[in-house]
Design a protein that fits this description.
Aminopeptidase; alpha+beta; single chain
Length: 189
Amino acid sequence: MPSLYTPALPAGTLSSLPQPVITDDGLQLRPWQESDLADVIAGYSDPAIQRWHCRSMTSDEAREWIARWPGRWSTETGAGWAVTLDGAVAGQISFRRVDLDEGLAEVSYWVLPSARGKRIAPRALGALAVWSFGTLGLHRVELNHSTLNNASCRVAELAGFPAEGVQRGVARHADGWHDMHGHARLATD
């Protein structure tokens, strides 16, 4: 069935480029590397990260998680970056979902316990948003978090992602169904 509109971004927008290293505000966002295995395991072993991301990882699972990111970039379905500060992994930020037709991406993030309190997440989110709009040409970047996750709400607000509303009972966590708070930033913001 033919579309009645032109896609916001053509197929190949991501896959025709190497995944970038983004440097901004004292942080570097770079593609995951096999040498980051211990940091991924540490992240998904942290109770606070487990609570909101609903997963833990063995060494083999973490290795597979790292190995999948280049394929997601090339199929234009997602992208993952290690967020580094002074060369050390401080957290992660990723496009959980990419829709080039609509010109949008959904973001997720976490910060390792040792790097908390340095505004790593809002700085990384801001840097990724600037690159997403200025270089990639996205129209919209959005994120969703449990309404109980006040820290993630602060991250979104600090990075210029206004709240848009609440979806009731849309995400299942270990302790049951959660309402999710949506935030988004547009290229025109």
